[in-house]
Amino acid sequence: MNLSELPSIDRRVKLTDFSEFADRLKVMTDELRDQILAPRPRKNAPVFTIGELSELCGLDRQKINYLATKDGSDLPAGETHGTGRARIFSLKDARQWVQKVSTIYQTPLVTGTREQRGRVLTTANFKGGSCKTTTSMCLGQGLSLRGRKVLMIDLDPQASLSELCGLYAEKDINWDDTVLPYIYDPNIEGGLGSKVQSTYWDGLDIIPAHNYLHDAEFHLPAEQKTNPGFKFWSILRNGIEPLRTQYDYIIIDTAPSLSYMTLNGLMAADSMVMPLVPESLDFISSSSFWSLFAEVANGFAEHDVDKTYDFVSVLLSKVDYGTTSSAPVVRSWTQRAYGDWLHAIEIPASSVMSNGALAFSTVFDLSRADTVAKTLARVKQPLMDYCKWIDDQYVAQWRAGQ
């Protein structure tokens, strides 16, 4: 048979075809999510052994066991496990122990509000696959394990952070649950705080995202055009301000673009974290981010808009230490480019991390009994160390009354 006689494939795609394709794809992804996360509840917080609690609190195991079983103790006793000699503590239990007996400074509460203002961190990067969203979630979880109360704000229409918090963007969230109503009307009843939801992780709340967040990219420039005095970059900052007395940390996950909403996140932040994979394209992409942000910053400066970040931290992530890795070369570029901004802590790559991503989980979601927990410990510990470093910066400010 002559090949020229075979029927050709019509590869043309009309705009109207995308709707049918998206509907088919949605059915498939819903089925996949149900398989991964069934049965409900979709996500469960980890449990902690006495050994893990000992590490979190900085106390030896014997002291933990004594305090847990002491008559009249106001500390959670946990649940006996196995032969009855071992104890397992819930996440809520563990956080109470940290808050009550560890040497970690805890922010004083007065009539339910914090004496010191909570701090706002924003993660940013243009490059997909940079671990930006996973890093945001890990920062929230790691800081909560230091006794902190944390609010996550998802500004990415892809809503990946919301899904890491156990919420389905298409099933559990609609546009009214996001920051969008506040962006449209900053005078809404309850303000931005009315959009806060609790999560499966004790001490961690979220304002989730939805793909309708894209609408803000049309609304904000339209407002700016009709109202020359409209400060589009300050909307989110103003909304967050009342929440600072309710949370120790507010962590904003931005979209991988320098959009109006990303700029709102960057201008609301006290500090900025950029996860960076040490690969050539990732490094170049990070350079593009700073070039564009510098242009915007210069424009702000011309209009007397001033801002100072407490710190900018570049965190090397998914670092491959293999002999054929390009990480050493890119690390040297990064050191030259970023200087003191580049943090000494690095997050190593792990072959089992993809399994966690598939299950919408992070290294903090695993209990020590899980088969891959020990393997992921080499990833988890640097993240805990990094959270401690961030926390130490702000504890110093809180102690100084700032």
Automatic annotation (TrEMBL):
Q: Which residues form the AAA domain?
A: 119-285
One Pfam family from the record: AAA_31
Q: Which CDD domains match?
A: ParAB_family (cd02042)
Name used for this protein in its record: Chromosome partitioning protein
